[in-house]
Design brief:
Helix 1 links the parallel strand 1 and strand 2. It is built from 8 helices and 8 strands; from the N terminus they run βαβαβαββαααββαβα. Helices cover 31% and strands 17% of the residues.
């Protein structure tokens, strides 16, 4: 079993935590407001979860999940995540985050920004394009008809291997993209974003994506 450090306790972070705990993993979950604000969530999640500061969650993590508003990514701690796999569930909502010109122009990706911030971590795009409440509930056994597929995008083969196995454990097939530069294909408003896709459907929709909307 793996200890996951979760940075961000909102819809995505809390639902990934539920899914992980259901499969026997431990979670250390944090938010910007402090562990004392997570009492109710920890009571719900049970003994496999504990609340911590952001720094403590990063330090405790064998694998980390970043699920914060994109504008907050510069506050993700760097040194405690050095050398670790970091799952990036961030999405760009300019209405919330303010305009980021390099994203508006299609010159960078959301996960690329996090990778630049965490230069010695192995960032992998994951869990950003599925409804948060579906993460612990929509998985199906391997080989099931219409099993949903999710994207994992990373420059790191090890990170892709890890997330592929994790997705399978949680009940999802994987479409792997072996470059963060191509992770824009599953960002907000692209054809594969936010809707259920089988593996074949997701491959087709990634291919149909346009970089600048």
């Amino acid at each position: 079993m793996t200890t996951f450090g979760i940075i961000g306790s909102g819809n995505i972070g809390s639902n990934v935590a539920r899914a992980l705990i259901a499969h026997g993993h431990d979670v250390v979950i944090s938010n910007s407001r402090g562990p004392e604000t997570l009492t109710a969530l920890i009571d719900e999640l049970g003994p496999k979860a504990r609340a911590a500061t952001v720094e403590e969650a990063a330090e405790a993590a064998e694998v980390a999940l970043v699920a914060v508003p994109l504008k907050a990514y510069p506050h993700v701690p760097v040194e405690p995540l050095a050398g670790k796999i970091v799952l990036d569930a961030n999405n760009y909502y300019f209405e919330r985050d303010g305009h980021i010109e390099s994203l508006d122009r299609g010159e960078e990706t959301t996960s690329g920004l996090l990778q630049k911030h965490l230069p010695t971590s192995r960032v992998v795009k994951a869990f950003n394009h599925i409804g948060a409440h579906e993460i612990p509930t929509a998985g199906m056994p391997a080989g099931s008809t219409d099993r949903r597929a999710l994207v994992a995008a990373s420059d790191s083969p090890e990170a892709l291997t890890f997330v592929t196995a994790l997705y399978d454990e949680l009940g999802y097939d994987t479409v792997a993209i072996d470059s963060l530069d191509e992770s824009w294909r599953i960002e907000r408003d692209r054809p594969g974003y936010g809707i259920p896709n089988t593996r074949d459907q997701l491959v087709e929709r990634l291919g149909a994506a346009q970089r600048v909307l």
